Amino acid sequence: MTAWRLDPLGEAAMLATLEAAPDLDARARNAAALALAHYFERCAGEARCEDGIESIVPALDSVLIAFDPLRLPRAKVEALLRQATALPVTDVAGRVAALPVRFGGADGPDLPDVAGALGLPPEEVVRQLCGSEWPVLMIGFAPGFPYLGPLPESLRLPRRSTPRLAVPLGSVAIAAGMAGIYPARLPGGWHLVGRTDAILFDPQRDPPALLRAGDRVRFIPQ
Description:
Elements: E1 4-8, E2 13-18, H1 26-45, E3 53-58, E4 62-67, H2 74-85, E5 96-103, H3 111-118, H4 122-130, E6 134-139, E7 146-148, E8 164-167, E9 171-175, E10 178-181, E11 186-188, E12 191-195, E13 216-221
Parallel strand pairs: 5-13
Antiparallel strand pairs: 1-2, 2-4, 3-4, 5-12, 6-7, 6-13, 7-10, 8-11, 9-10, 9-12
């Protein structure tokens, strides 16, 4: 049984956060958050929720519900959340995205250092990254940036001690037990192991983000 804490964020948002649950690992906690977000998306799509919900944003183990308080009272949103969080957790069947990636060299300049720090040959790091489908735990940091994982212990290492001022568009990186893909040229402190030509975010596309929470990503080595 999952337990949730509900907190108002101003007059127009509610945050549902999964309480401490020692029996749930990171992936199970994320699955609960995605299931809650999916419930509200279905609810809004079927007009079972009263008009007024403006956005639903899942994170690693929480969900933000933004609403128009002039059309939907906060008490009603809280009641809907309490109803939804009492339901059993169901898996959210997301899409699978196969992304070609060039590993190492100029596209993945940190791969040799990553391999050395992990005590693995570079090709083994690539093999492990390409050997599984990684769930998109959340989208954050920048529009379209996916947090993928959790990675196994064999691929876990902290962020770089010195962040880069500019990480190239499409860079595939790992840090703190997760992988990510930079959707634009951005500053960043993750270890760069490869690069993809996939466009993670395009404001002219509908929807703009290539991935969403609940999808899965498979890296295809080029």
